[in-house]
Design goal:
globular
């Protein structure tokens, strides 16, 4: 699910969810990319580091002609999310009231999760797809 969400959103788009989340209108990409961060937060660090190999295998199997391009851009939307304060705040909101409910997650915590995800899974995937 994490890889599918990453591949689905390579930019912070303008499409919103049809139903508000906890009373707020949320960008579709933000909900999906926030879910990636929540899954990473709920996983052990060594598990996240292990995502690269199966992601690479899946890309090669499902997209034999374009796996390199897809792997290189898999984190583009997440990078864009991190660079957009409003969108990142929405991601924090969706995780705080959703999968990470009751965990006291802050925006700084969520940003650290994203940075670790890049370091341990997305950057190695990008390197493997050169």
């Amino acid at each position: 699910m994490a890889l599918a969400n990453l591949l689905s959103h390579d930019v912070v788009g303008a499409q919103t969810m049809s139903t508000p989340i906890a009373g707020r209108t949320i960008l579709r990409c933000v909900k999906d990319l926030g879910r990636v961060l929540a899954i990473a937060r709920l996983s052990k660090a060594e598990e996240v580091a292990g995502w690269t190999r199966p992601w690479l295998k899946a890309l090669k199997a499902c997209f034999p002609k374009s796996w390199r391009l897809l792997g290189r851009r898999a984190g583009d939307g997440l990078r864009a999310l991190m660079g957009d304060a409003s969108a990142f705040e929405q991601a924090h909101h969706t995780t705080r009231v959703g999968l990470l409910l009751g965990q006291g997650i802050t925006e700084d915590h969520l940003r650290a999760v994203a940075e670790q995800l890049f370091e341990t899974a997305l950057d190695p995937l990008r390197a493997a797809c050169r």
